[in-house]
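BACKBONE STRUCTURE TOKENS:
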Amino acid sequence: MKQLIGNLKGDKVIWSFVALLALFSFMPVFSASSNLAYLGHGTGNTLGYLVKHLAHICIGFTIIYLVHKVPYHYFRAISKLGLPVVWILLAYTLIKGTVIAGANASRWIQIPFVGITFQTSTLASLVLFIYVARYLSKTREEEIDFKESLKELWLPVFITLAFILPANFSTTALIFAMVIMLVFIGKYPMKYIGFIIGSGIICLALFVLISKAYPDSRFFSRVSTWSSRIENFTTDKPDEDDYQIEKAKIAIASGKIYGLGPGKSVQKNFLPQSSSDFIYAIIVEEYGLIGGFGVLTLYLLLLFRFVVASHKANTLFGKLVVIGLGFPMIFQAMINMAVAVELLPVTGQNLPLISSGGSSIWMTCFALGIIISVTKKDEEIEEELKVAAKRDEALQKLIDAELASEEEINSDYSIEDSSSNPMDAVMNK
């Protein structure tokens, strides 16, 4: 175990928080999956779901370990080459129109021969954030040409978002907001940022207007879902989403301060997405406000550590990568919690590292691996500086010792005659 921990490089605090969240996830996932066990097989056996979640977590930590061994600057070139690949995957996902359990699941694709569904938008967001960080670090010494940035920066951003928008508005909005935050931190001119935000709003409005003109098109099928969710959130009209919110609020109210206890949730049997999108409600029901605030605190501490890691990074690219990959993870968690308490309409965003799922956990772990790789490089530089300082100190000690010995020899040797009679030297006396 000590050898294994010794092989883990990078920020140990980030490793610790990630491990705590992953370990804690087993209890609510095991409890909440009982509903799925009854629906899927009728046996009520949740062991299979627990083993599946364990496999996902183990694969996720393997991804973190492998990725954090790769020098993070390699991802500069990978992001540029990866964007066209991501666009192809997103286009295939949009055209394929996967259906899972009778529901529209156009955000996922089925991996051949494996039987695992993969959400391509999560991979696209990681590649896009790294690409934006690459561009900003490349142009930090230069005055930004807006026309050139439209081609090199914003065109890839809007192409990526255009592929994601028809299937997932919430993810599109989150990615766009994070890109805006990233370019703001990267000192992109504010007057240009305002123009980009306005352009994004206009593009969204045009998309909605076109969807109204072609309401029967499968390409625009999700637009009605977005509008109904927003309408139901503002007017409290009863529907399926409102049913989920009501059950989530009942679960949170039932938990009170200390909760009902692990595995004793009642609403998990009525809440459709109890192990994924609404798992926070189950956490509060079983572990009370103490458990809910505990999970929230872990995410906030992780956010604080991302800020520290970004501050310590020795390159602008490293700083922006930590912000671009770390902050969306935390904001996604905040959105998930806000939905559970009805501060936001239903978005479909899961709780990172806690909600059940395969590709979402793996992509989160991939991002964490890159962040830890940045912190690993900083540690390596600090170690090199310490070794260099020790080497200089040892060399200085040798020089001082040599100078001291030379001074001692010079003090013992003299050409002056100390005898009282000058003739003694001639007479050899």
Residues 99-104 have pLDDT under 50 and may be disordered.
